[in-house]
């Protein structure tokens, strides 16, 4: 009976009373495949949580982790402490980033990175003598993690409500409208806005592609009004959109880029922020200058950084970064026939190796938590996908064989049939 098996593990984003006793117990993984405790195999069409871009059990990453554990297992980088993997990783990530004179601040994940970027944005204007520039603008349907700033600028209503007041001086604008962004800047007063946070392709909020020209237009509005343009590349980076940071698909120069997930192949927890030289400069200029009194215990963790260095090697050696773009048309093509399904309102695909399948209003009305039901139905077909507010997302590892994309399309088609069958 749900609720009576008595798990002590409280899962994120879970209806625990329903989950308790009905968990999917994962046991092993290999490449793009995951096996449960009963030996059933599933195609990992979501790369865990859009993060295992190299697939699972990557030998080079495992070896790097083991070697680093045997050398310097753990030490902080607070103050003047450092370690070679952290230094090398920051240098490589800075060189790869489309950011001028970049510095890299390392964290434990995406939410950490977003709140780091938000605090840095506010601190920047304090140093610039513009302390009234506090406001941070996000977008509807945006997802930026679960910390204070990330929750406050998130645009998924179910996630932002129920906590009482959020951070002051934050707001969201319709995700696809440049006039709405411009109006919001004027409503607040542009001289009071510190930053605009933008996922190149919105992920958890629905896999929503930006309208043509939106990203460039938003960056231009930010520049015009002295507002920092901050890219949340937590999902889009490391090949998901076919480039290192995803944002290279657009003709913009961000002031900061938050990253996580794929940086370590999703294998160990790691994130960070690429920060432009203009923002970082006061902190690096001369002793006695400003100090960023911020950072998690595991910032620059040597084992996580060694894993990431090995992951970067594999991305490079196996030419995996461009695959996110090379396969985007193939993924869109295998999902295209789903548009004919009576339960499907739309298929959102074509930019990077990720896609959203939105259910019709009728399909959602017919089944309680239809996205969750569709996710479970796909699991019965041997395909792991992720529920979205209106349907499901797919984001397989970049290592997926072109032919295996068809398994995703077929599995979802069968799952949709099963979902509709329960309506009758
Ligand atoms: N930003 C985006 C765009 C994300 O997708 C996520 C996680 N799904 C986060 C931030 C938060 O990252 P984390 O879960 O590592 O804190």
Automatic annotation (TrEMBL):
Question: What Pfam families does the entry give?
Answer: Aminotran_3
Q: Does the keyword Transferase apply?
A: yes
- The signal peptide here is none
What are the alphabetically sorted keywords of the record? Aminotransferase, Pyridoxal phosphate, Transferase
- Is Transferase found in the keyword set? yes
SUPFAM superfamilies associated with the record = PLP-dependent transferases
Q: Which GO molecular function, any one, fits this protein according to its record? A: transaminase activity
Tell me which family the UniProt entry assigns to this protein: Belongs to the class-III pyridoxal-phosphate-dependent aminotransferase family.
Protein name, as recorded: Aminotransferase class-III
Give the source species. Conexibacter woesei (strain DSM 14684 / CCUG 47730 / CIP 108061 / JCM 11494 / NBRC 100937 / ID131577)
């Amino acid at each position: 009976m749900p609720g009576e098996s008595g798990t002590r593990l409280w899962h994120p984003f879970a209806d625990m009373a329903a989950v308790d006793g009905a968990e999917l117990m994962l046991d092993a993984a290999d490449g793009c495949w995951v096996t449960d405790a009963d030996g059933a195999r599933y195609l990992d069409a979501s790369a865990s949580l859009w993060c295992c871009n190299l697939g699972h059990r990557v030998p080079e990453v495992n070896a790097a982790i083991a070697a680093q554990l045997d050398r310097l297992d753990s030490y902080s980088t607070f103050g003047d402490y450092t370690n070679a993997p952290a230094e090398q990783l920051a240098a490589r990530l800075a060189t790869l980033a489309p950011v001028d004179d970049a510095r890299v601040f390392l964290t434990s994940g995406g939410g950490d990175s977003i709140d780091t970027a938000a605090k840095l944005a506010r601190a920047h204007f304090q140093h610039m003598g513009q302390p009234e520039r506090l406001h941070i603008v996000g977008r509807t349907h945006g997802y930026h993690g679960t910390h204070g700033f990330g929750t406050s600028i998130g645009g998924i209503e179910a996630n932002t409500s129920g906590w009482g007041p959020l951070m002051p001086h934050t707001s969201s604008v319709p995700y696809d409208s440049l006039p709405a962004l411009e109006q919001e800047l004027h409503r607040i007063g542009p001289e009071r806005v510190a930053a605009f946070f933008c996922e190149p392709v919105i992920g958890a909020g629905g896999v929503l592609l930006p309208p043509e020209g939106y990203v460039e237009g938003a960056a231009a509005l930010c520049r015009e009004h002295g507002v920092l343009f901050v890219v949340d590349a937590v999902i889009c980076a490391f090949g998901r959109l076919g480039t290192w940071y995803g944002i290279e698909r657009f003709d913009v120069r961000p002031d900061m880029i938050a990253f996580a997930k794929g940086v370590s192949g999703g294998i160990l927890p790691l994130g960070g922020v690429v920060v432009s030289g203009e923002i970082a400069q006061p902190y690096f200029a001369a002793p006695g200058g400003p100090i960023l009194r911020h950072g998690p215990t595991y910032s620059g963790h040597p084992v996580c950084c060694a894993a990431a260095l090995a992951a970067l090697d594999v991305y490079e050696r196996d030419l995996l970064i461009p695959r996110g773009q090379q396969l985007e048309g193939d993924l869109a093509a295998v999902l295209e026939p789903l548009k004919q399904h009576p339960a499907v309102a739309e298929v959102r695909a074509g930019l990077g190796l990720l896609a959203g399948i939105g259910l019709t209003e009728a399909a959602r009305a017919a089944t309680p938590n239809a996205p969750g039901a569709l996710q479970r139905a796909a699991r019965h077909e041997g395909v792991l996908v992720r529920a979205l507010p209106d349907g499901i997302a797919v984001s397989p590892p970049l290592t997926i064989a072109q032919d295996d994309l068809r398994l995703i399309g077929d599995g979802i088609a069968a799952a949709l049939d099963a979902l509709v069958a329960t309506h009758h």
